Amino acid sequence: MAFTLPALPYALDALEPHIDATTMGIHHGKHHQAYVTNLNAAIEKAPELAAHSLDVLLASLSTVPEAIRSAVRNNGGGHWNHSLFWEIMGPNAGGEPTGELGALLTTTFGAYSTFRDQLKAAGVGRFGSGWAWLLHDAGTLKISSSPNQDNPIMDGGRPADILLGVDVWEHAYYLKYQNKRPDYLDAWFNTINWGKVGERFEEAKG
Ligand code: MN
Cα(110) to centroid of ligand 1, in Å? Predict the structure, then answer.
C-alpha cells in the first residue's frame, strides 16, 4: 500500500515555453519522487498508519507519532500538493475559465485579471518556499498561501475545496527564471487547465 509517484498526464516538454522540460523532469522525477520515497520511509516506522489515505493523514497530523510527524507533514504535503499541481496544468491551456466557475470568479474578484493579480501577489508574497491556492469556500472563492509543503487540509480544510495550487519553491522555476518569481507566475497562468479545475469545482460545490 505504499504511495507511488503518479505519471505526468502529458510529456515533459508539453508546458513549453512556459515551463521548460528540464525543470519538469527534475521537478517530477526527482523532487516529487523524493517526497514519495521519504513519505513511505516515514510510514514504515508507524505501520498502524499504513491503512490511512493521504487526505486523512494530512487532516490528522496531531495524531501522527511525533517522531515522524514532520516527515509526514513535509513529504505527505509534498506528495499531495504536487499530485494536484501536475493535474491542474496542461498544454494548450490558460485563458479564462468559462461556465459556472468563470461566473463565480468574476462575481468574487470583479474580473479575471483581478483574480490573476491576487493569486500572483499571494505567490510573490510567500517568503521563502510554499504554495498559493485558489479555494472553494462554501459557495464562494478565496485565495490563500501556505509555507513549505503545507496545505489547507492541515488547517481542517476539505481536500475537494482546493481547486488549484501553484508551487513557488525555487525548484519550480529557477533554471528558466532564476530569481524572477513574478515572471514565472506570469507564464504559469498560461498552463492552467481550467477544464480540470472546473471538474474540481463541480465536486467541491456538490
Ligand atoms: Mn515543487
Answer: 30
